[in-house]
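Ticket #4471: structure export looks truncated?
Reporter: QA, pipeline team
Priority: medium

Steps to reproduce: submit the single chain below to the structure queue and open the exported record.
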Amino acid sequence: MKKLGVVFLCLFVLVLLQSFANAQDSSLFALPGVYVRKQVADTRAFPNRAVGLVINGEGETCTGTLVGARYVLTAAHCVYSTFEAEWATNVRFIPAVMGEGLFPYRVFKWNRIFIPRRYYERANKPDNEHASFFYDYALIELKEPAGEYLGYFGLRDVGDGSSLEGRNITITGYPGDKPFGTMWTVECPVKRNDWGTLDYYCDTFPGMSGSSIRANIDGKDVVVGVSAWGASVPDGVYAPNGGTMFNSENFQRIKSWLSGAVTDSSVMHASRERTVEVWFKNSCSKTPKLRVMGVYLDPETGLVQNALWQELPYGQTRKFFSVSAVANAFHYSAQGKEITWGADVKYSVDGKLTGFNKKVFSEDTKKYGVLVQELTCKNRE
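Actual output as written to the record:
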């Protein structure tokens, strides 16, 4: 890797909410391009809200993109270190981050991670270095379907890449040389190189590893690869940055992951974190249409998690979110036409104080990992 003058774009930070640029000399990692980045003003509008930070327990951040209801695409080196032969821990996906501590949506936890076996087997094998270029992509399966209400991108099989020649691509992510948590985007032409990967002069920086490479094909904004590395700039001469291309092999592998399958050419890593699935049942005939929200404190990040308002028609039972069993409790609020639930504590929701009831997990709930909260016509359950 050093011989090629290539550095991965993974951003290493000292703490969760501290900018890498403030802690290190950014000139050592500068990966300038000809086409400059522009800051995204509204991260909450689609397609921007389908892009987010990927953060792990080691304090490293990358960029991820929703490509399914429960699936986030990123770079393999963001979740697995071939130098240490270790998986990242405590992986989180935070969509549409607007700045330091400004998370318009909740933090989503991982359930499983998929990477190509060729990349996994590169660990401690310098002779397998080319795997970093061809197979540097990963899929993170979330515990909850963030893409159902945030939206997600489709993928495209680009074959040998000849159809991409001359097209413009878009790369959106969270670079470390900008204020922490600010989203930036860049567009530039793309070219397939002799290696079978993608070259481009889009201006990128550490922290944008895992950003999807998107192109407009047949009128659709689709993902055709993953931004994964940047070239050094000897004597001020620009060299192209690059990413893994979704040829037929890579496309079919990711497609199998999206269906939950693990083929022989893949490696799957599962979370061992104990969680509790929280379900709600609307048993109040006075509220044919009920809005329900759950709030809890993430014991690992210290952040209050908001599961957002969701509708629950009368007679239906539905899973709303998963909570770490370590949390011990959660709060919920429900609003109907004639009755509301929430009396224990108040939180600010959309600028208004909203009442919530508290629910403590029993030992059986923690053991079996499921809680069904029934909402009758009494506002205290």
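Status: closed, not a bug. The export was complete when the record was re-opened. Leaving a note from the reviewer for reference: The first strand starts at residue 6 and ends at 8.
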